[in-house]
Design a protein that fits this description.
326 residues; globular; Jelly Rolls; three-stranded mixed beta sheet; 13-stranded mixed beta sheet; alpha+beta
């Protein structure tokens, strides 16, 4: 049996530890791979993972996405011993001998982080890079980066504040494009249904080009610039934008800038977890420039209807977009 100081575990994840306590916990965790397996499995039941470790410093575009420590499940500490037994038993069935013999656990080559529609998630990668995932997004990443480049794969929307290392370039592969960090904080949007991969730079520089296994050769983006790369295109278009508007989703704002209606309703669907359907295909190319915060969906639709000259109708759980009545 592996003894676990559950009070220390949850104070650690609640960012309530003193520096010496934090160092002691991390040393204890590193001494035996089986400890991480048990702690990761148990704490995941509380809605946290070891990737969601508290940040060591504030980030310029950071938002408080973690649950407050006071909201952690109160039942976990009183039944910690039972939880250890249950988790250990499950691990023994799936990985025979990993607890008893304390043999190193073999981590999977890649991990997967996902968000549901209407949700966001923040996490820190093994190199210290801070990531925020937008709604209905996923990120594939290695548990630990190797000696070469640091490559991750994004589907959806994400923000990356990269710990720069020129000898180990950080690359985000997204759909038909790739973005390489050159000392950077930047956002990437690449949902499967998007025709464009979009990268907006908050700090530093990013190289944006076609998907590649090596160094990214493409447009060099600097702070305040948005790069868009269309499918089948070898060259990205670049323009200056209000970066905070494009990163507004991180603190609960939806921003549309000459956005086609088909993309507007796709984003609204992800944000509010509500399916949309455009009844008349001719409406799909109408564009919208607008910004919303945390208004209820009904209020958003009421505001959009006259601007887009459309009518919204709820049919069961789906919002159907019609031309406005004459």
């Amino acid at each position: 049996m592996i003894d676990v100081d559950w009070d220390l575990v949850f104070r650690y994840f609640g960012n309530e530890c003193a520096p010496d306590e934090r160092a002691r916990f991390e040393q204890w965790l590193a001494e035996d791979p089986a400890r991480r397996v048990i702690v990761d499995a148990a704490v995941a039941a509380a809605g946290r993972t070891l990737e969601k470790m508290p940040a060591s410093r504030p980030a310029p575009y950071r938002v408080a996405l973690h649950r407050p420590a006071a909201l952690r499940p109160a039942w976990l500490l009183p039944v910690a011993a039972s939880l250890v037994l249950a988790v250990s038993g499950a691990l023994l069935m799936k990985y025979p001998g990993v607890i008893a013999r304390r043999e190193p656990a073999v981590a999977p080559a890649l991990r997967l982080a996902q968000t549901m529609r209407g949700a966001r998630r923040e996490m820190r990668l093994s190199d210290g890079t801070w990531v925020v995932l937008g709604p209905a997004s996923s990120l594939r990443y290695p548990a630990a980066f190797g000696a070469g480049s640091r490559d991750v794969e994004l589907s959806g929307e994400g923000f990356f504040e990269v710990v720069h290392d020129a000898e180990h370039p950080f690359r985000v592969h997204a759909g038909h494009a790739a973005a390489e960090d050159l000392g950077t904080a930047f956002g990437v949007r690449a949902y499967p249904e998007d025709s464009l991969v979009r990268v907006v730079v908050a700090e530093g520089k990013v190289s944006l080009g076609a998907a590649t296994q090596g160094p990214v050769q493409g447009a060099l983006l600097t702070p305040g610039q948005l790069g868009s790369l269309a499918k089948g295109s070898a060259k990205a278009t670049v323009r200056h934008v209000d970066v905070r508007a494009y990163l507004g989703w991180m603190d609960g704002r939806l921003v549309f800038d000459e956005t086609p209606l088909r993309d507007v309703v796709a984003q609204l669907g992800r944000w509010y977890d509500a399916p949309f359907r455009i009844a008349d295909p001719a409406l799909a190319t109408r564009t919208l420039t607008a910004s919303f915060t945390t208004e209820p969906l009904a209020d958003v639709l009421s505001a959009l209807a006259p601007v887009l000259d459309v009518r919204f109708e709820r049919v069961a759980d789906t919002v159907v977009v019609h031309p406005a009545r004459r």
